[in-house]
């Protein structure tokens, strides 16, 4: 199936799989032949995702990855993995003068510390095969561009991408590749709620994209599949922008 | 938060518009400085100072600062 882009025979962990990009990644990876362990916070929505997966042998583990102990417990249950797509994340919009310590800590916990601690536990428990591929869903925000009100979100996403580069270097001797995708504006449930908060004129916003549309979760999933597959076996520490050309202008 | 305090907090989200231009009957969307940044400022202020979540659509649906204040009191 699709040669070196195939995920046939690979066992993958997909986090954030109860909605949005993570759910789409899970569905598309299963179509490409992977056996999946999917994770999300909401058991009901996670079960829905599980029912959407092609093939057999998939499993779901509900856990809140912003909780260190929950991450450690989940990793204990995992089989040996050939790859990880880490999508757990939340957005935040607000003005700098109203930043609250609790909000900042909660956002960092979900968007940064969960990725770091998950990687740490997977490596420490030797759950990643040699070779393996870890792909973090970061963002163009904070790395390639920013918009008003994104200060905290941008800070977490640039921290995530910074960690990924360092992890790529440190884990290369173990045959573990680490890469990021940097999506632009992707039409998910989160996107519509955040746009309503800002009352952006969506038709006007589309004109800011050289390719004249917002992204679809499938656009991001395709990039992640490439980075999980053997087609990217000489790619590590890279940041793949998937933004319809938004950051070109 | 009283209406007067709300008007004052509302005015603080603007950098260019003088504070004396803000009254309960001010049609805020007609102000030259009204835009995405001030919208964001008001939404965040309401969240931080009043513990209420409003959206850009809510801001569009109201006209005066007093009308917005009354709306927030009801949610």
Protein architecture, described:
The complex is a heterodimer of chains A (249) and B (75). Chain A has one domain: Rossmann fold, CATH 3.40.50. Chain A has 249 residues and is of the alpha/beta class. In chain A, helix 3 packs parallel to helix 4. Chain A has helices spanning 20-31, 43-51, 68-77, 101-124, 151-171, 189-198, 202-206, 217-228; strands at residues 11-14, 35-40, 59-62, 81-86, 128-137, 176-183, 239-242. The longest helix of chain A has 24 residues, at 101-124. Chain A contains 8 helices and 7 strands, in the order E-H-E-H-E-H-E-H-E-H-E-H-H-H-E. The model of chain A has no long low-confidence stretch (mean pLDDT 94). With 75 residues, chain B is mainly alpha-helical. Chain B has a domain at 27-75. In chain B, 53% of the residues lie in helices and 0% in strands. Chain B contains 4 helices and no strands. Chain B has helices spanning 3-11, 36-50, 56-61, 65-74. The longest helix of chain B has 15 residues, at 36-50. Chain A binds chain B through residues 93-95, 98, 100, 148-149, 196-200, and chain B through 13, 36-37, 39-41, 43-45, 47-48, 55-57, 59-60.
